[in-house]
Write a structure and sequence with these properties.
This protein is an alpha/beta fold. 46% of the residues lie in helices and 20% in strands. The chain is built from eleven helices and twelve strands. Helix 1 (6-18) crosses helix 2 and helix 1 crosses helix 4. The longest helix has 29 residues, at 62-90. It is elongated, with a radius of gyration of 32 Å. Keywords: DNA-binding, Transcription, Transcription regulation.
């Protein structure tokens, strides 16, 4: 591939775009005489005049106009390609394995804030589990204290929760015994409701409501007013604060459980930034609002 010298092409492109050797020189940080010499060298290489020179300046020839479009397009493609590669090289990826419920109700609404603060860090999110967690830089898990180094993000205490529409339609629920006539919705199994009611000395009522294998499906059913579910209050702070859901009783189950942020053994600087940000966001969410039981 036989190409003209790059320096002559840069000088010609600027001069053709500005229709001035002096303006091109200012843009390129050189003298007008140097721009003129580069253009002459290019004309000699091509064997075609690119500018008409006269006392009051220069003007592109037809060949100069045609070649100017070609050179400008080519240099722009080179610049764009270089920018893409440079950005890709500078961007770092942090792998976060998380429960889907935490992604949906805690992380997703806040992730744009992290992106605005750290546009050079790309967060790759996968499900937390045996296969994914071991490969992740950070993991968000649920339960008692994990065996690895972990920080408690927020409590996993669960309380009876429903939409205000269901409370208006089927309430009031002034006493725990009133729940025996309610439509109770279940996350994964009936065990959570059975244990919660047992604290009050009551059995799980016959004909209990549907079981949802995914917590996010349960929350969708709650929001549409289908019944009452045992939900982690801290995880649904946003929905409770904006009135989509309400807590019926302050009595909580799973007081010994938390949502934990677990770090890998070899933390990169970017992973540390995301870890610190997640902890700060969790602490900030704890300070907002009073989510005591509703009275309607």
């Amino acid at each position: 591939m036989k190409l003209p010298p790059l320096a002559t092409l840069r000088a010609f492109e600027a001069a053709a775009r500005r229709t001035s050797f002096s303006l091109a020189a200012q843009e390129l940080g050189m003298t007008a005489a140097a721009v003129s010499q580069h253009v002459r060298n290019l004309e000699a290489w091509l064997g075609v005049p690119l500018f008409e020179r006269h006392a009051r300046g220069v003007r592109l020839t037809p060949a100069g106009r045609e070649f100017g479009i070609t050179v400008s397009s080519g240099l722009q493609q080179i610049a764009s390609g270089a920018a893409r590669i440079s950005q890709g090289r500078n961007r770092t990826v942090v792998r976060l394995a998380s429960l889907p419920s935490v992604v949906a109700h805690f992380l997703t609404p806040r992730l744009p804030r992290f992106r605005a603060l750290h546009p050079d860090i790309q967060v790759s999110i996968s499900y937390s589990g045996r296969d994914h967690t071991t490969e992740a830089d950070l993991s968000i898990m649920h339960g008692a204290v994990p065996g690895r180094k972990a920080v408690a993000l927020f409590s996993a205490e669960t309380r009876p929760t429903c939409a205000p529409a269901y409370l208006t339609k089927s309430g009031p629920f002034d006493d725990v015994s009133d729940l025996l006539r309610a439509e109770l919705l279940h996350d994964d199994s009936e065990a959570a409701w059975r244990d919660w009611l047992a604290i009050a000395g009551m059995p799980l009522p016959q004909g209990a409501g549907p079981i949802f294998a995914d917590f996010n499906l349960l929350v969708t059913a709650l929001k549409t007013g289908q019944g009452i579910g045992l939900c982690p209050t801290a995880l649904l702070r946003d929905e409770i604060a904006d009135g989509q859901l309400t807590i019926l009783f302050d009595r909580a189950a799973d007081a010994d459980k938390h949502y934990w942020l677990v770090e890998s053994g070899d933390m990169t600087e970017s992973a540390r930034i995301l870890s610190d940000w997640l902890v700060a966001e969790a602490r900030e969410s704890e300070t907002r609002g009073d989510y005591s039981a509703a009275t309607i």
